[in-house]
Write a structure and sequence with these properties.
With 321 residues, the chain is of the alpha+beta class. It has 9 helices and 12 strands. The chain has a 12-stranded mixed β-sheet with strand order 1-2-3-4-5-12-6-11-10-9-8-7, sandwiched between helices. The protein is globular and about 65 Å long. It starts with a strand and ends with a strand.
């Protein structure tokens, strides 16, 4: 018999059992688990979101788990869910019990839309996660392509800029840029390709930028940011390279150039600049992973010019409650 119960983040042993089950379920190169300190910080309530963690227990063993994340400053209709089950206990209804329990939490919180993701290898026609989501009433909303850049690379060319443009970089955002940088983070979702159930822009201000930096520090992560400055002195684009405390992987996260400044080669220049600025961190890594909407042909072309090659697909799913 399966018992689904709440996980107490404050209890070291309870969270350790939860994380052990989680880590055992993410063993593909394109879908690696977060370390325990990273995941614990990521799932801790703060001013921007709340989280409920559940564990599935059989004969006193944690055989699976999941969580629901609830934004509190934006996208108040949405709840993000993730479910994982050890391979020894799949196809026994454990995942369904967890998902139903998480959906009940979202419903009680007044959310009307569940959001989830499923990944599969580039040579596969689909995966167990996508089959599970579809069988439980989720519909695909947008398809993402996962690409990887093998490291080390021989040399990263210097960025090429148009007259008047310049690049800056930081690992802690300078005060002079923080408000403009928060604006770039705020408008990202509306400027990125989205499905029919697209997200509204997230709430970002200077304090949230500092909160993110503190969270990265608590996780043992380092983020290398590069930003583009237009001739009028405004920030008009940015990109992030994020490094966990250990492991072989780095992550290319957000990249944005404001619409009126596109076509000037800033996307490629930003990514090259970030890699050059993070050369000391990249020496210890063996690959950089990144996601793009499959429809985002421009950014995909930028990544392929850098040497990225596709390794997997990711589908973003939605289900009405």
């Amino acid at each position: 018999m399966t018992t689904v119960r709440r996980v107490d983040l404050r209890d070291e042993e309870d969270f350790a059992r939860f994380h052990d089950a989680y880590a055992a379920c993410y063993d593909r190169p394109f879908d690696q688990p977060w370390g325990a300190p990273e995941k614990r910080v990521n799932l801790t309530d703060d001013d921007y979101g709340r989280h409920v963690l559940l564990a599935a227990v059989v004969d006193e063993q944690t055989v699976g788990g999941g969580y629901v994340s609830l934004p509190t400053q934006d996208n108040l209709d949405s709840a993000y869910v993730e479910v994982f089950v050890r391979s020894t206990h799949r196809r026994r209804g454990v995942g369904t019990e967890l998902l139903d329990a998480l959906a009940d939490v979202a419903r009680r919180e007044g959310r009307t839309l569940l959001r989830a993701e499923a990944l599969w290898g580039v040579d596969e026609s689909g995966g167990a996660g996508s089959s599970f989501a579809t069988a439980r009433g989720f519909a695909p909303d947008i398809l993402d392509a996962i690409r990887e850049l093998a490291l080390p690379v021989a040399e990263v060319p210097a960025p090429v800029l148009q007259p008047g443009d310049r690049l800056v970089a930081w690992r802690t955002c300078p005060e002079q840029w923080i408000d403009q940088y928060a604006h770039l983070r705020h408008v990202l979702l509306s400027e990125a390709p989205s499905g029919e159930d697209g997200l509204e822009n997230e709430f970002w201000d200077a304090e949230r930028v500092r909160h993110e930096e503190r969270s990265w520090n608590d996780q043992g992560r380092i983020a290398q940011t590069a930003a583009a400055v237009a001739p009028d002195g405004r920030l008009v684009g940015h990109t992030q390279l994020v490094f966990a405390a250990d492991g072989v992987e780095a992550y290319q996260w957000d990249t944005l150039v404001l619409p009126e400044h596109r076509g000037r080669g800033l996307g490629l220049a930003l990514k090259r600049h970030a890699m050059r600025e993070a050369a000391d961190l990249l020496r210890e890594r063996r690959r950089i992973s990144t996601w793009n909407a499959a429809s985002n042909t421009h950014m995909i072309a930028v990544n392929e010019a850098l040497g990225y090659r596709q390794t997997a697909w990711a589908a973003e799913y939605v289900r009405r409650l």
